[in-house]
Amino acid sequence: MSGIRLEVVGDAAAVAAKAAAEFLRLGAEAIAQHGSFRVALAGGETPRAAYERIAATWKDAPGGALSWDRVHLYWGDERMVPRDDPRSNFGMALSALIARVPIPAENLHPIQIDAESPEAAAAEYEKTLRVTIPHTLAALPCFDLVFLGMGADGHTASLFPGDTSLNEGVRFAVAARHPDSGERRVTLTFPVINGAAAIIVLVSGSAKAAMLERALRGTGRRDGDPLLPVESLRPTTGSLLWLADEEATSWARPGGNRHIP
Ligand code: 6PG
């Protein structure tokens, strides 16, 4: 189902449960349709509980136990730190999900944090995407699912406000730098993210409410303001689900699912 949708659930635990259910549902569909399920995982803290929920529930998925030998995991972005560093997105997914499910090691496609530079790591990752993922007619790798988070400043993956990476239209992955910490990173670019069959953005907590309203309704954007990263999430042919809890959507009307105006 294409299009952009907001789904509001109770709290962070409900966001995790819904995200896990969507992962298992989309996984069963992708495997049934084309024999594999290629996912780009998000980093940060919000997705951790969703990954743990996937690990706890995949055997009882409504479509039957997920066939992990058909699942390939990638990363939407990575910090250039060792994998045992608490900041590592791979490390977080390893402890929350990978170590708990029977996914073959060859189905893991992490960003090469031991490359000689973030730029080299990004180029290496592009090669990985080109070799391991069937491409769309637009010659872009087509993920079945991209999980994302959102920073209170409107960043997503490691696409930060004001960065030239926001306008990257050719490369699949680029080097990035966190604007506050200066931490070097690698991130997928918008052509790849927006080319996914399904994008799910996990948003939890009151700290994200103002930015989520901006992203969905344009609240606070003045004429001439540059688009913030999350405002550039526009699926080309796939679906975009904003999955948020009540705290992050305090600005919205009470009631059920909200359609984007
Ligand atoms: C990262 C993520 C980043 C994250 C947001 C939200 O590597 O940090 O890719 O985009 O999703 O910063 O992070 P929290 O989930 O921790 O709020």
Q: Which features characterize this protein?
A:
261 residues; alpha/beta; 6 helices; 10 strands; globular
Could you characterize the architecture of this molecule?
By secondary structure, this protein is α/β, with parallel strands linked by helices. It contains six helices and ten strands, in the order E-H-E-H-E-E-H-H-E-E-E-H-E-H-E-E. The chain has helices at 12-34, 46-57, 89-96, 118-132, 190-194, 209-217, and strands at 3-9, 37-41, 71-75, 77-79, 145-148, 173-177, 184-188, 198-203, 239-245, 258-259. The chain has a seven-stranded mixed sheet, covered by helices on one side. Strands 4-7-6 form a three-stranded antiparallel sheet. Strand 6 (173-177) and strand 7 (184-188) form a beta hairpin. Helix 1 (12-34) crosses helix 2. The longest helix has 23 residues, at 12-34. The radius of gyration is 17 Å and the shape is globular. It starts with a strand and ends with a strand. The mean pLDDT is 94. 6-phosphogluconic acid is lined by residues 42-46, 76-77, 89, 149-151, 155-158.
